[in-house]
Amino acid sequence: MASEELTASDYIQHHLTNLTFGKHPNGEWGFAHSAQEATEMGFWAIHVDSMFWSIFLASLFLFIFHRVAKAMTVDTPSGLQNFVEWVVDFVNENVRGSFSAKNDLVAPLSLTIFFWVFLMNLMDLVPVDWLPVLAQWFGATFLGMDPHHVYFKVVPTTDPNITFGMALAVFALMLYYSIKIKGVGGFFGELAFQPFGKMGMPANLLLEGISLISKPVSLALRLFGNLYAGEMIFILIALLYSGGIVWGTLGGVLQLGWAIFHILIILLQAFIFMVLTIVYLDMAHQHH
Questions:
Q1: Which of 151, 127, 123, 153 is nearest to 138 (CA)?
Q2: What pLDDT digit, counting tens, does each position of 132-182 carry?
Q3: C-beta separation of 38 from 20 below 8 A
Q4: Per-residue model confidence (pLDDT) at position 155
Q5: Which member of 50, 155, 235, 249 has the lowest number of beta carbons within 10 Å of its beta carbon?
Q6: 91 pLDDT above the threshold of 90
Q7: How would you class 198 by CB atoms within 10 Å of its CB: exposed for 0-12, middle for 13-18, buried for 19 or more?
Q8: How buried is residue 245: exposed, middle or buried, by Cβ count under 10 Å (0-12/13-18/19+)?
Q9: Is 226 labeled as catalytic in the residue annotation?
């Protein structure tokens, strides 16, 4: 990737471009060969790499937990079973501490969100060139593609489509339970009659509407922004490897240090997304 044919700007742009499949302006369907072509494909284009990794990691999560559930034992639990039990207990404690209503969906949903987001974030620790270079080799060898036109982002949470997709799913559940628990009138009343009462309805609707819409937006952007910034720093550090032995050695030290620190961000962002989901659903179940 960081060859002499690419400038630093080209290298960064290549790593930040998704493998995009969509409809070209001439009406033909296919993969984008540049960031500009990906943009021209518009809203209905599919980020194949983000879809692949998010589905693969979700399947990995289901496989691990299903396997542990089938082999569960109280006599000689394996290390993997102990880890899964610890994660389940950790999530249950957070649900009991933040969710005051009764809903059997919340705990499994919280567990899925925490572990799925954690696995997607964890891809940020894979060296930035390994999988993109492998994808370039595969595309050139088996598909006859120009390797410089093979894009492959491996961290799904650096794609706003993924983070907004999850946030909008949580938002849909918020609206569903708000209307189910409070009724349409009760839900509208919370938006229209607080904090200034009936006489302040226009101001109430504006303030509460902004507060409502800001929940999924902030939920998505917080996760995306933190992981995108972390990935960008890894890419910038990787540029040092092209500067010779001294700069390359410095780059290795910096990447190791940033990776160790980034573990905290990976865990923290998965935890925040889970906790806010629990809190938002708890708010949806509460009568004002």
A1: 151
A2: 999 999 988 887 888 888 999 999 999 999 999 999 999 999 999 999 999
A3: yes
A4: 97
A5: 249
A6: yes
A7: exposed
A8: exposed
A9: yes
Enter the tokens of residue 250: 């410095």
Q: Is 218 a catalytic residue?
A: yes
Catalytic annotation, pick one of 34, 98, 222, 242: 222
CB neighbours of 1 closer than 8 A, spacing ≥ 6? 11, 14, 15, 129, 132, 133, 136
User: Which residue reads 């910038």 in tokens?
Assistant: 236
Report the C-alpha gap between 29 and 20 in whole angstroms.
Answer: 11
**Model confidence pLDDT, tens digit, residues 168-224:** 999 999 999 999 999 999 899 888 887 777 777 888 899 999 999 999 999 999 999
161 tagged catalytic? no
If we measure between CA atoms, which residue out of 173, 174, 170 comes closest to residue 272?
A: 170
| Per-domain boundaries in the chain | 8-285
Given the residues 78, 82, 211, 218, select the one marked as catalytic.
218
